[in-house]
Amino acid sequence: MTVIPSSPAPAAGPAGRGTGPSEPRHPRPDGRDRYTIGEVASLTGLTAHTLRWYERIGLMPHVDRSHTGQRRFSNRDLDWLAFVAKLRLTGMPVADMVAYAEMVRVGEETVDARRALLERTREDTAARIAELRDTLAVLDRKIAYYHDAVAASGKD
């Protein structure tokens, strides 16, 4: 397996809270964190259409609106979207993400159900990682075979 080193995430400046890769930095400090849908799209890589869809299906908690009705996202919304992006990477079905979001809204009485859902997702993700490691090993063997074949033919 090839390991690619990464540099540590920089410590957060005044606008951010995070000090590591799991704690996001924010472009604006809390209290001055009102982002338009276009800004959030740019920051997250999601389209405005996807952000509206997330809100419509109940995946986004209530998004504040300006006096003219424009969506105004907060740092908390950015954190939620970062978490949703991680859930998407696990392959979690959207229906499960929406169910999880609803459980969060309900409150403390759903902690056990939320934990169980995340534990199942973790198990599924660990199994996928194991499959990918096996696949990577097969690819490494094939690449080594072709490398050796080229070297033996003198075409290197």
Percent of residues in helices comes to 55-70%
Termini separation comes to: 24 Å
Low-pLDDT segments, ≥5 res: 1-19
Number of helices: 5
What order do the helices and strands follow? HHEEHHH
**Strand count:** 2
Core attributes:
156 residues; mainly alpha; 2 strands
Description:
The protein has five helices and two strands; from the N terminus they run ααββααα. The protein has 156 residues and is mainly α. Helix 4 runs antiparallel to helix 5 (111-153). It is elongated. Mean pLDDT is 87; it is low at 1-19.
Write the layout of secondary structure elements.
Layout: H1 37-44, H2 48-57, E1 64-65, E2 71-72, H3 75-90, H4 94-106, H5 111-153
Antiparallel strand pairs: 1-2
Write a short abstract of this structure:
The chain is mainly alpha-helical and 156 residues long. Helix content is 58%, strand content 3%. It has five helices and two strands, in the order ααββααα.
